[in-house]
Amino acid sequence: MLAQSSQDVRSAGDALVPDQGSDNSQAYLETLQLLERMHRLMLDLVKDEFERLRRNDLTPVQALLLYNLGEAEVTAGELRSRGMYQGSNVSYNLKKLVAMGYVSHERCDMDRRAVRVRLTPAGQEVRDIVRRLFMRHADGLAMSGVLDDPPIELVNLQTRRIERFWTDQIRYIY
């Protein structure tokens, strides 16, 4: 964890809140809140799309699992590391998706404890629904100019840097 002077931090209940004078700290905290809200909104967008299509058999998290699985054949651990499944149990959702016929699975030859999963044709259909939804949003954002200032590539670069920092912090703990 980064050390801060007592002048830069004030207590708010159990949380430490950077002082108003620390612009970078304030912007970082705002980014954290935005990331969380955007994730929740993304789940709501997926939910609304499936409700519009009268497909109520999947949760938004399950639909995103199918989307993130894509064309790959991976283990549950690999799938978990690819996406954000806040408050969800990947193994539980994979079992449900197998039972519903969206995912097929088989034991790995090398490690019989591991199970490799891949999309069935029904799972590919769901993946394509989510992909089309995201592409419509990308087109709308591009037309509005939202992705131009700052360029979305620079936003992604900064986000990847934060992701790398967080990953290093987790590795440092263990």
| Rg measurement, Å | 20 Å
The largest sheet has its strands arranged as: 3-5-4
What proportion of the residues form beta strands (DSSP E)?
5-15%
The CATH architecture would be Orthogonal Bundle
- Total tally of structural domains: 1
Q: So what's the overall shape?
A: globular
CATH class: Mainly Alpha
Structural class: mainly alpha
Separation of the first and last Cα atoms: 13 Å
Kindly report the average pLDDT value.
84
CATH superfamily: Winged helix-like DNA-binding domain superfamily/Winged helix DNA-binding domain
Number of helices: 6
Give helix and strand order, one letter per element, not per position: EEHHEHHEEHH
Q: How many strand segments?
A: 5
Q: Strand count, sense and closure of the main sheet?
A: 3 strands, antiparallel
Protein name: DNA-binding transcriptional regulator, MarR family
Keywords: DNA-binding, Transcription, Transcription regulation
Domain HTH marR-type: 28-164
InterPro entries: HTH_MarR-typ, MarR/SlyA-like, Tscrpt_reg_MarR-type_CS, WH-like_DNA-bd_sf, WH_DNA-bd_sf
Describe it.
Keywords: DNA-binding, Transcription, Transcription regulation. This is DNA-binding transcriptional regulator, MarR family. Residues 28-164 form the HTH marR-type domain. With 174 residues, the chain is mainly alpha-helical. It has a single domain, classed as Winged helix-like DNA-binding domain superfamily/Winged helix DNA-binding domain (Arc Repressor Mutant, subunit A), CATH 1.10.10. It is 59% helix and 11% strand. It contains six helices and five strands. The protein has helices spanning 23-52, 60-69, 76-82, 90-99, 121-144, 152-173; strands spanning 9-12, 15-18, 74-75, 103-107, 115-119. Strands 3-5-4 form a three-stranded antiparallel beta sheet. A hairpin with a 2-residue loop joins strand 1 (9-12) and strand 2. Helix 1 (23-52) packs across helix 2. It is globular and about 50 Å long. Residues 1-14 have low confidence and may be disordered.
